């Protein structure tokens, strides 16, 4: 997959791919207008929404309504490094959700492709090219 990243002004940085544009910005303290999420916020959102896709697929495959299901994601920062040290993903289900499926629901969310890539990161090659 190829993405084109451009700089539309201020502290905005956008990604274009597959007919979509994902816009990012920085808060005013970082020189931006706070008009869009930061790239790091989108990164974190990709984890929760990816887990959500797997939870939704699990429910659809079994004919279980997804109404009332929510995922709460909490990122905990390591004060020594300033990096995220732990991410908790809590799957909240409504009271009528079949209890026998709860362990399988966790296993389905655990299959998130974004999470799997973090566990086995790709190699990054960063370089310049004059055009």
What secondary-structure arrangement, pairings included, does this model have?
Layout: E1 4-9, E2 12-17, E3 20-24, H1 39-62, E4 70-77, E5 84-92, H2 102-109, H3 113-119
Helix pairs in contact: 1-2
Short synopsis of the structure:
The chain is of the alpha+beta class and 131 residues long. It has three helices and five strands, in the order βββαββαα.
Structural write-up:
The chain is α+β, with helices and mostly antiparallel strands. It has a domain at 37-119: K homology (KH) domain (GMP Synthetase, Chain A, domain 3, 2-Layer Sandwich), CATH 3.30.300.20. 30% of the residues lie in helices and 26% in strands. Strand 1 (4-9) and strand 2 (12-17) form a beta hairpin. Helix 1 (39-62) packs across helix 2. The two termini are 21 Å apart. The mean pLDDT is 97.
- Low-pLDDT regions: none
Major sheet size, sense and barrel closure: 3 strands, antiparallel
| General shape | elongated
Give me the side-by-side strand order of the main sheet: 1-2-3
CATH class of the domain at 37-119: Alpha Beta
The oligomeric state of the chains shown is single chain
CATH architecture identity of the domain at 37-119: 2-Layer Sandwich
DSSP E strands, number: 5
Kindly state the mean pLDDT as a whole number?
97
